[in-house]
Structure formats: C-alpha cells, structure tokens
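User: Is it possible to get a 3D structure for a protein together with its bound compound? The compound here is calcium ion. I've pasted both below.
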Amino acid sequence: MRISVQGRWWYTGWIGGVRNGSDFIWPDGTIVGADGYDNWADGQPDNTGDVEDCMDIIGDANTFVPFGTWNDQNCSITAPYICERQQDRKAQTLISLNCSSFH
Ligand SMILES: [Ca+2]
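Assistant: Yes, that's possible. Here is the predicted structure of the complex:
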C-alpha cells in the first residue's frame, strides 16, 4: 500500500514530529511517546547519517517495514504531509488543525 495524494503515489508522508535533543516532539510541543504510545518501525529512530530530524510514516508495503510505522527521515525530502484534525462531529465545525511545517 502507498499513500495517494491528488492522484500521485508516495512511499512516505510527513507526520509532524521533529527531533528535539534525544526526543521527538509533535507540532503541539508534546513529546512523542510521552502518552505511552509510539509506532516506530523496528530499529527506528536510527538517525542515519546524523541528518534524520523529521518523522515520516511508512507507506510502502514492498519494503520489510510494516505500513503505517514511523521512521526518522531527512527533513529535506519532498513528501506529502498528514495533518491532525479535530472536529466537533455534532456541530460539524473545525476545532483545531495541526500540520507539520515541512513538506
Ligand atoms: Ca531512520
């Protein structure tokens, strides 16, 4: 499975986390994993080449890494990004929208 954005297929997508020292933080400033949940792929984050400061999600089941797991990646790679959207289901109004600042 790959990620489809406006008719183009991608093998990855940015999910907003960035390196902050020895941790990664989400766009709202919370530390990744502080809530007891993370979904890093086996062996990740590995900071290959000491340049992987952004978090992406694996969208290619042809690799040996499960779809949907997380990886640290070089921030300069162009990829679509995934936003967190909170919506009031009853009122159908947007409460908040958090997107990564890189893409
Ligand atoms: Ca990595």
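The longest strand covers residues 12-20. The domain at 2-98 is CATH 3.10.100 (Mannose-Binding Protein A; Chain A).
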